[in-house]
Write a structure and sequence with these properties.
single chain; 281 residues; Rossmann fold; 10 helices; 14% strand
Length: 281
């Protein structure tokens, strides 16, 4: 049986996209899943018919909701073996054009929310590792964590911060049986852009015209499931070739990007505006 079988795994952001695909994949492998999303109705629709799934309406940018998610997991199952940090927001555009509330919301969910949920879940993950030999944290990051480019500067900063957190966590808990992973996708066919600009789809039908271009969410879900069965902590790019984004931080490539991309700021702004308009109108 897969290592994720019969384990209790929390997946944030399970109503659509990567989170929804991850819930379906883990359930298929026999895991008992607790998942959350801000839209409780959409979440209930997404997990309807999936055995062993508990749905919790919760916002991972909210401290009370984070605590409630962990409490609901323990009340339902009495333990926690895995945590998939998937919930996230993005915003496409230049920093000078961003509303302050957009900056605060992205940081609160992508970085603070992920760190704080891990913090309150950690005692239970460590207990699971001691009792059953392993526990896992999987952070859904982005290739933007490795190469920060406009129009995703603030989003990239949160994912780079998440990468730093994961590296530090590995050095705290690896010897105690907790594996800490990142899955770093390239562009994924999700509602990410529409949600980040305040237009979350209300149904699957509504979402079809708002999806960003990219790989199927199921490919990212496969990587998440692979981390939960790995004998060591992993950093995985999806697709694999997307790991080349790391070269963006190598001198002299980074200096070339500094000069070249900054000269294209006006064009980047316009392309971002068009991409957003196509998904929110």
């Amino acid at each position: 049986m897969p290592a994720s079988s019969t384990r209790v795994v929390v997946v944030t952001g399970g109503s659509a996209g990567i989170g929804r695909a991850a819930v379906e994949r883990l359930v298929a492998e026999g895991a008992r899943v607790v998942t959350c999303a801000r839209d409780g109705d959409r979440l209930a629709e997404a997990v309807a018919g999936l055995p062993g799934v508990t749905a919790v309406s919760a916002d991972m940018a909210d401290a009370d909701d984070r605590a409630r998610l962990v409490e609901a997991t323990l009340a339902e199952h009495g333990r926690l073996d895995g945590l998939v940090l998937n919930a996230g927001l993005g915003w496409a555009g230049l920093v000078e054009d961003m509303p302050g509330e957009a900056v605060a919301g992205i940081v609160a969910l992508n970085l603070t929310g992920a760190i704080e949920l891990t913090r309150i879940a950690l005692p239970h993950l460590l207990a699971a590792a001691q009792e059953r030999g392993r526990a896992d944290v999987v952070a859904v990051s982005s290739v933007a964590a490795w190469s920060q480019v406009p129009p995703l500067t603030v989003y990239s900063a949160t994912k780079a911060g998440l990468t730093g957190f994961v590296k530090g966590m590995r050095r705290e808990v690896t010897a105690r049986g907790v594996r800490v992973h990142t899955v770093n996708p390239f562009f994924v066919e999700t509602e990410w852009l529409a949600r980040g600009h305040g237009h979350p789809p209300t149904s699957d039908d509504d979402a079809r015209g708002r999806l960003s271009r990219g790989v199927a969410p199921s490919r990212v879900a496969d990587a998440i499931a692979g981390c939960l069965t790995s004998p060591w902590s992993r950093t995985v790019a999806v697709p694999r070739w997307a790991g080349l984004a790391r070269l963006g931080e190598v001198t002299p490539v980074n200096r070339l990007l500094d000069v070249t991309l900054s000269r294209l700021a006006g064009r980047v702004r316009e392309q971002a505006r068009r991409a957003v308009d196509a998904r929110v109108d």
